[in-house]
Amino acid sequence: MTTETRYSRADFQSGQEVKWCPGCGDYTILASVQNFLAELDVDREKHVFVSGIGCASRFPYYMNTYGMHSIHGRAPAIATGVALANPDLTVWVITGDGDGLSIGGNHLIHALRRNVDLKILLFNNQIYGLTKGQYSPTSELGKRTKTSPAGSVDHPFNPVSLALGTEATFVARTIDMDRPHTTDMLRAAYGHKGTAFIEIYQNCNVFNDKAFQILTGRQERDANRIYLEAGKPIVFGADNEMGVTVGLDGAKIVKVAEVGMDAIAVHDPAKPNPGVAFLLSRLSHGPTGPTPIGIFRQVQRQTYGDLMMGQIEEAKERNANASISDLVSQHGTWKVE
Amino acid sequence: MQEETLSPPKPPERRDRVVIRFAGDSGDGMQLAGTRFTETSAAFGNDLATFPSFPAEIRAPQGSLAGVSSFQVHIADWDILTHGDEADVLVAMNPAALKTNVRDVVPGGLILVNEDAFDERNLEKAGYETNPLLDDSLSGFHLLTAPMEKLTKIAVKDTGVKGRAVLRSKNFFALGLISWMFNRPTAPILEWVKTKFGEDHPVARANIEAFRAGFNFGNTTEEFHHTFEVAPAKLPAGEYANITGNQALAWGLVAAAKAANLQLFLGSYPITPATSILEEIARLKHFGVKTFQAEDEIAGVGVSLGAAFAGHLAVTTTSGPGVALKSETLSLALMTELPLVLVDVQRAGPSTGLPTKVEQSDLMMALHGRHGEAPLPVIAPASPSDAFAVAMEAARIALKYMTPVILLSDGYLANSAEPWQIPDFDALPEFDISYTTEPNGPDGNFLPYARNEETGARPWAIPGTPGLEHRVGGLEKEALTGNVSYDPDNHELMTLARAAKIAGIADDIPELEVEGPDDAKILVVSWGSTYGAVRAGVINATKEGTPTAHVHLRHLNPLPRNLEHILRSYDKVLVPELNTGQLASVIRSAYLVPTATLNKVQGAPFMAHEITKKIIDMTEDPS
Prior knowledge:
The structure holds two protein chains of two kinds. Chain A is α/β, with parallel strands linked by helices. In chain A, 31% of the residues lie in helices and 19% in strands. Chain A contains twelve helices and twelve strands. The longest helix of chain A has 16 residues, at 25-40. A seven-stranded mixed beta sheet of chain B has the order 11-10-12-13-15-14-20, sandwiched between helices. A six-stranded mixed beta sheet of chain B has the order 3-4-2-5-6-7, sandwiched between helices. In chain B, strands 19-18-21-22 form a four-stranded parallel beta sheet, sandwiched between helices. In chain B, helix 9 (275-282) links the parallel strand 10 (264-268) and strand 11 (290-293). By secondary structure, chain B is an alpha/beta fold. Chains A and B meet through strand 2, helix 2, helix 4, helix 11 and helix 12 of A and helix 1, strand 9, helix 8, helix 10 and helix 11 of B.
């Protein structure tokens, strides 16, 4: 999609030297975001990028927009303050699996449940990169790292399941290498009013290379990428020969020919109940097999900011021209002559 | 019943001041009785100061020593400084309340007791082996007893309240009796009850009947015929309101936002004793203020920092444990040089400590409790009403110098009340605050870390401003450009620039004024909520023949520029604090001036006589 806009990608490059390791998936995501914003044609000063700490969190320094590189795990809280202070801004949160799900897990789930108008991009590389290769809360069980020489005994989070559990209003997953799909997800997140959460599978080629090989390798990817598209049957494979059924016992991978097309689930991200989306998120943990990517859930719910501003406007109408003198006199005063 | 029948028959004894303490079980409504007595005394025109004290548990076991809640009020016909060292009158609703409070009653003082609560079970819970009403253990006091429960039951029998609710009105019986004894106007109390509960509500009727029964019990019982009168105080002419420290802080922050023409944003997490600031501001939405109850203390300050970045007057309120959690974000606010006010309503620590009790033990944390070289302005109010002005001052410094500011209040100021001469709000100074909207660089670029020559502050360019897009963050920033810099010389330059900015605030705060006689040899230095007790203690010491000078610090960092000169002008320096000597350490290390200390960490404020005694002891000590 190429239309003439005021901006090119260069307008969103800050001029600071990008210092991620050569070959890092973060470069691809940065390019996707910069290109998308150029194409979007919204005033550059209206974008604010807030990040925590970690490799991914260096992101704001490379964006020629407003930005804050904040504290480990705290980006959702700080971004909430920016978004509530000025609803005209588009506030992006850049976080990683360690930042967003370990030290900052609490802020992430509360931002998601409140439905603050934030676009949260969680770069999931299943490893601590900035501290050079310790297991993260999304690393697979048994992962051998410098802090888990005998294999980690931590059961990992599935970030999409977690987000759905908070009843987040927009939950999606994409892959760093799939730039058209990443752009589609960014566009949908931008258009969503409320908290939009995108898990981006991101390859750390130094400390956790090929963690997503089954989704990115030429040989494997067609058999393992399940693109979720609203209103369409959930089928995948080189010839769409595979599909997904959803029942009381969960979502299952099936051969379409064996069950018939009518048995294949039709994807509906707008379902008010997040239950089916959750079942889909359980198809693959890790990823270790066929994995859905796309929008799991997109529903409308009033945002925290709108509700808050609504209360303020209503209070102002009821109490026009309020002064501090009035406030004090309501409290009860007396005069000394 | 008509108002005139409520007048006491005998001429009352005139007193210039009286301290009354209401004490009972935490479910007995003593805070309410004390507050109502305070409000009616305020309306009558007394000067006053209050000291509520209650357990951390909402309902500790009934009748236990741990469950005692008290409210002390000092009323006077002159301008008083403290809530009173000792009580002239103690109202004790049960044996536990008597036991825990009798030690604070002046010899010969009046003790009014709810005799119905002095049964075997309650006596045992309070640890009394014999009934103190029957033995001679209270012979040094003037003991009055009343069957408050029995008479309350009779009084409320036709009001519609039933069961356990009946006895809830006994605090109003006690309040009625004390109101009669001290010639209080009854109308404000009765009006309040009607407004609070609804005129015809059974609870309103029950409280009013219990109040009248108490009042009339005094009127008709000979034993009580001695009454007192405390005339209105001769306070400076003006309009007054009774105000607690937390209320004053809330209103001061709203006033500061108005003075700065900014929106107020408060991000906070409930914590005793700071919560009522959030509660107060949350109901002021008609001023356009935004409040956010966060998921935790860290998010409370985080959302505020985000709002500061986006251009609001941002505040977070907490107590000691919360400051510990917020300290990393405070460092980020310092590094990003954004304005932020952190209110620490100190309580006794460490850890959960004594959550409802006062202490001044967070001073060192406020001054030094951050990683790296991280100096911040620290200021503290001296009294509940002073908190209004101090809140405005904290905001002024934060905005003018683009820095977080720590405001140290405490649990005593939070809940204590005093009359506040209401300022002319229209005449309050306005803050000259503006966002940067134009590039400031030599070639039309924006330099987010170019400093104002006078203040050292960097420009405040908020997101949404075209052409000034920039990034802030925790990594060290290059001077001027704000780009990430690992250059060693730049880090030193920026560290020193941040420190110089804070130190320079000393030129923007008033010099200290010494109170006290010219021939004083001893200087007392105090800060925070101890002002009243220290001031009263110093005046008494001077009256008793030891001329003593006093300075009180509002600004703890930077310290006022004439403090050193003042310290060196006296033979001896005494620093009384509700900690183990934190300001004393600061003064010693900053000026190498020997200081004596008077320290108290009992979860209770100083009494004036403790200060006086220490001063006199120091003069008798030849060293």
